[in-house]
Design goal:
Largest sheet: 2 strands, antiparallel
Distance between the termini: 83 Å
Protein name: RGS domain-containing protein
Strand order of the largest sheet: 1-2
Helix content: 55-70%
Keywords: Membrane, Transmembrane, Transmembrane helix
Order of helices and strands: HEEHHHHHHHHHHHHHHHHHEHHHHHEH
Number of helices: 24
Organism: Meristemomyces frigidus
Length: 453
């Protein structure tokens, strides 16, 4: 099985002989794996296959349910976009790894399930270097990268440490550009900062040796550690200290995709069983919060009007048949309130429209350019944070008055599966409004006539 597809089953990994190794022996981990594999969960019940997590990730849906909409929801609503960003990066990384030639794959051995369990249990911290050296030694024998050659060439524990500028100039001479290249790297920020953060993370995890730099995509691993794994990083994942230590020990030894098995199960479970159902429920809401509150107010007003009309007619000498006059107020009020309680405005639903989200109202770039920028690997491994307080649309949206928010711009809902869900909710609201209105009117009609006036 190629690793570009194995991400869907994070609890397992295909070995060279085609066998499958379980990620963990713990009962809790097994239950998570089984839940992900089965695709059944009380939290995701009722979501149609057309809006499933796999279909959204694969790009098989229309707005407002695309993967970019999913990311915006996690960023602006749940404030947990780093999980989906890391998941998308990992999927792309598995694809790139499968495309590597076998000679390069051999430099980064598979991180086995037994090693992952041992690291999570904290029973071994420095047993991997021996096995790793045995696998790599045969490949690098009689080369400049053999163990003896490396020790003779580099006499420091940190291969990413930038040498002192004065010492470099003394050794290389005034006309050498060796020192300037390191100086430019240090002042330019990106690579040097990533190496520094990654080295600090390795040291905090108790590493006594640095990763093997000739493995494929080692620089990318360094960036990912500095963005998602290291404590205090810009998009730090919600990992326990033990999970972070086990992952760093794995990445210290290999850049193989199996090194991430210890955390991918938890991340995918969170996305599939928590974030995805919440996103679908949030997407069903076709109006913004002021519009939904306004719709709820109209529903309550209709119910109050119907109650007052029936009450006055009941206390009067009017015939009982007149009490049916309040039925439309009951019906409209109850149906509107039930739909608004689900986050839907019946007027917008009649048009199959939805309000533009606040971050969509002030978008300056075309949609295609935004999608291309969003799906780029540079954005997924960028040092930028997921904070949006400084984005231009935040103060501009706050300045809008309530009436203008209620009458915000609308857009057509393109996804047919979402429209079907909204149709179902609307029909349920109408049916419930009709039944409850009949019951309430019947109760008032059963009361004898009053004699107040």
């Amino acid at each position: 099985m190629p690793y570009s597809l194995a991400y869907r089953r994070p609890g397992y990994v295909s070995s060279e002989n085609g066998s499958r190794d379980s990620l963990s022996g713990h009962e809790k981990q097994k239950s998570i794996d089984e839940s992900i594999s089965s695709g059944s969960s009380c939290m995701s019940a009722g979501i149609p296959e057309a809006l499933s997590f796999d279909r959204i990730i694969a790009g098989g849906v229309c707005p407002p349910c695309t993967v970019r909409d999913f990311m915006n929801y996690l960023k602006y609503i749940e404030h947990s976009a780093e999980n989906l960003q890391f998941f998308l990066w990992y999927r792309a990384y598995c694809t790139k790894w499968d495309a590597l030639p076998e000679c390069e794959k051999a430099l980064a051995p598979v991180w086995t399930a037994e090693q992952a369990e041992a690291e999570l249990a904290g029973s071994t911290a420095h047993t991997q270097p021996k096995q790793f050296n045995l696998q790599v030694a045969a490949i690098l024998r009689d080369t400049d990268f053999a163990d003896g050659a490396r020790k003779a060439t580099f006499d420091r524990s940190d291969p990413f440490d930038t040498p002192d500028q004065n010492s470099v100039d003394e050794k290389r001479g005034p006309n050498s550009d060796y020192g300037s290249s390191f100086s430019d790297e240090k002042t330019s920020g990106g690579s040097y900062v990533a190496h520094s953060v990654a080295n600090n993370a390795y040291e905090e995890a108790g590493m006594k040796w640095m990763p093997f730099t000739m493995q494929p995509y080692r620089d990318e691993m360094t960036r990912i550690i500095s963005v998602y794994i290291a404590e205090g990083s810009s998009r730090e994942l919600n990992l326990s200290a033990r999970e972070r230590r086990a992952l760093l020990h794995a990445l210290q030894s290999t850049t193989h995709p199996t090194a991430f098995r210890s955390i991918m199960t938890t991340i995918e479970y969170t996305l599939r069983k928590q974030a995805h159902p919440n996103f679908i429920r949030w997407t069903i809401c076709n109006g913004n919060r002021p519009r939904v509150i306004f719709a709820r107010g109209l529903g309550i007003a209709g119910i109050v009007i119907g109650f007052l009309v029936d009450l006055l007619l009941t206390l009067s000498h009017a015939s009982r048949a007149w009490r049916l006059v309040a039925f439309p107020a009951w019906f409209i009020g109850i149906a509107t309130l039930i739909a608004a309680w689900k986050g839907m405005c019946v007027v917008l639903h009649g048009l199959h429209h939805r309000h533009l989200r606040p971050w969509e109202l002030f978008a300056d770039e075309p949609e295609d350019a935004l999608n291309e920028k969003f799906l780029s690997q540079e954005s997924l491994s960028s040092q930028s944070t997921n904070s949006f307080e400084d984005e231009p649309w935040v103060p501009r949206y706050k300045k809008r008055n309530v009436l203008r928010k209620i009458l915000d711009r609308q857009i057509w809902i393109e996804e047919p599966a979402l429209r079907q869900i909204q149709d179902t909710i609307f029909l349920q609201a109408v049916l419930a409004g009709f039944v409850l209105s009949c019951v309430l009117v019947g109760i008032f009609c059963a009361v004898p006539k009053g004699k107040l006036y």
